[in-house]
Amino acid sequence: MMRIRFIITLLIALFVESRQEAFGQTADTLSLSDKVIRSASFATGFRGEVWRNPALYYYYTPYTWTRLDVNGVYHDKGKASLKQEGDKDTRIGVDVNSFVILSERDRVFGSAGYRSEKQENVLWNENIDWKLIAPYVTGDSIGGFLKGETYYFNGGYASESGSWTWGITGGYRASHNYRDKDPRPRNTASDLSFALGAGYRLGTYRLGVSADFRLYQQKSEISFLADKGSISVYHTLGLGMDYVRFAGNQTGTKHQGIRWGGSIGILPADTEEGVSATVSIDRMSMDKKLSNANHLTLLELNTTDLKGNVTWMRELQQTEHLAVKLDAGYTVRKGTENIYGEAGGSSYGALISTSPGMKVTNSRIAVSGLWEKFLTDKGVWGGAIVPNIIYHRLETDYNAVSRFVHLSALESSLRARLQYQKRQLRLTAEATGGYYAGLSAEYSLPGLDAAKSSARTLLANIDYLSDSYSLVGIRLQGDYPVMKQYNLSLSVQWQAAYYKKCGTARYAACSLGIFF
């Protein structure tokens, strides 16, 4: 209850303080309606990764805004899911985002939120933050639902002085999840991050560099109220393998990770015209320890993430934009398994060697386009078209046991938006369509016992990841001004993915928001 009161107080504080005249914030000339339209436009965030630099984020919008949303999501994935993430999600949450122009030289920005979630039918994963620590989780063949909560806060400040701009951001996320039925995992995760950036104007462009730091920790413990019987807890290694020596009763674990990263980018002085580009690199080192075995370091995971982005944008008219973006990414995750000698007394043995674990490489290249015409106070119609093509290549290799899974896919989608203004009421309709084509699926899993639960889970995951599907979706939103300085919005969204082998996955969401 204390944390809930804290986050609610924090949200209210952000909601109110962004409008305080005591800050002496600079007045902007855009109407409330124009701010709502521009902040929600595709063009505003289209440049993507370049906004990672807090110094360049100073130029994100030339106006002050705050948005508070209460939202809910229901996602029924069925067989089209990774078993470690469950086949059904239900989430409710509240989020607030704000960008405030304090003066001609100073900006503050931030976000905060709370989310409650329930995952159902989770198998072979009793941890939280699967995507971050996979495949090194603790799992069992029973699984079940997982209930959880997340609280987060991010805040930043940026300032301009002559040709220089500098900025700093800091954020914190706290998450926990649990199950009140055997087996009973209790996981808590803390995620602290900082970033520092600088920018310098060179003619019609700004050059920016940034550095960031992240500190992550997760503590986990699994308990049983009933007789544990033959249920064993395993420490998975990927591709159906587990650390045999420590299987059974080692139910307490701790993940600790540190990440360092940086980026370099360029941004046009006029953010709505010209070319922007950014290159970033992140390196994260994570280890998994056994809490009840003298904090023995069982496994290590090193992740290197490279990203590049080039965006060209042109303002055809004051309310019309054309843009093209090229995104590329390459991620390598390498595991290391620690091998220990014979145990003696209270000792679990000395570290005698290490062995290369599973290696995962994920390559991605995407091309996106954008045409958008803003709806204005004087206009009746507005709209946007966003085409997208993505190539994926995922390679998972475990050379120590001669196992591998190699997948590739090509994804294409088209998103269209239409807006209509009728007096003070503004209506938005969006339609999305796409196709995900599995191009290749090669794998070799010698020694895999298909009768085991872990093996069946692995094969089901491969079927899902290699499957092809078509995607359709719609989103409807209505906006209406309240008391001249607030905008009230209500949106609903529905989406369905039709898989060739894994059936149908359905997604529904709704949101109630206030913008000012």
- Averaging pLDDT over every residue, what do you get? 91
Uncertain stretches = 15-25
Rg, alpha carbons: 25 Å
Q: Tell me the span between the first and last alpha carbons.
A: 29 Å
Largest sheet: 18 strands, antiparallel, barrel
Order of helices and strands: HHHEEEHEEEEEEEEEEEEEEEHEEE
What is the number of E strands?
A: 21
Instruction: Give the tally of structural domains.
Output: 1
**Structure class:** mainly beta
Helical content (DSSP H or I, runs of 4+): under 10%
SS strand fraction: over 45%
Number of helices: 5
Cα shape: globular
Protein name: DUF6850 domain-containing protein
Organism: Phocaeicola sartorii
Pfam family, one: DUF6850
InterPro entries: DUF6850
Describe the structure.
It comes from Phocaeicola sartorii. This is DUF6850 domain-containing protein. By secondary structure, the protein is mostly beta strands. The chain contains five helices and 21 strands. The chain has an 18-stranded antiparallel β-barrel. A three-stranded antiparallel β-sheet has the order 4-9-10, with no helix packed on it.
List keywords for this structure.
516 residues; 18-stranded antiparallel barrel; mainly beta; DUF6850 domain-containing protein; 21 strands; DUF6850
